[in-house]
Amino acid sequence: MAQAQGLGKRYVKAFFKGFFVAVPVTVTFLDRVACVARVEGASMQPSLNPGGRQASDVVLLNHWSIRNYDVQRGDIVSLVSPRNPEQKIIKRVIALEGDIIKTIGYKKKYVKVPHGHIWVEGDHHGHSFDSNAFGPVSLGLLHARATHILWPPQRWQKLQPVLPPERKPLQTEQE
Question: Is the pLDDT of residue 80 over 60?
Answer without folding.
Answer: yes
